[in-house]
# Entry
Amino acid sequence: MIEKKIGLLTILFFENLLRHQEIKHFVSTRTGGFSKYPYFSLNLGLHVGDDPENVLKNRRRLATTIGIPLNHFTIARQIHSGNVTIIPEESKGKGCTHHREAINETDAMVTNVPDICLTILVADCVPMLFYDPVKKAIGVCHAGWKGTLKSVALNTVKTMEKAFGSSPRDIMVGIGPSIGPCCYKVGPEVISQVENVFQTKKGYIINEAKDGKGYFDLWKANLEQLLHAGIDRKNIEMAMRCTSHNPDLFFSYRHQKADTGRFGIGITIC
Ligand SMILES: [Zn+2]
# Structure
């Protein structure tokens, strides 16, 4: 990833996606916004208890900074599922100013319609962007432990195959900043589900302690899922940046141990 200071904001970009002029994408950070602690300062989430006026000012500032109109931002009401929604032209801009209008009950969105900026909001969950330059289709998803075990990343690829005729070999993926295996401690109830889904916990759960707790490597779990879906390893760029380890740059639910804001990851066909 590369990090750029644009105006007051710090924005991150995936190098593999920057090579394609016909799309725009971004990963926002928490700096340069209007919100007060614990949402300080570029909180993009309207659903986390922050002053909505500040959130809208933050969203407008981000939109202007990256050159994507706010009414192109199409936002999901995320529920930690494996659900993927195909976004048609008429859903463009849903949720950009009102949370109740966001795309309901989905954790991934795909489209081939230009000028729809598929946007996911996170604070530790693994956000992922997808682009198929052959079929000109895009996707976005997020995966915490629940979404990872429900195969939301795999489902996103499958939906692109079905809806747009995408071939996984052509799809570029960016795996964004999220909680790393250094910080993501989980209990035995999660570990046993990891073992069920992946047929092993080896490599997925590290540093397991006597109390039955261990650290879940969401990055590896989602990488393996994408490879299983047929994505070429050389087309996957991983941020490898832990949100909990970088609380000045990213919102982290685990680090803040309470209310926090959300940063965003988005992609649009121009
Ligand atoms: Zn960490």
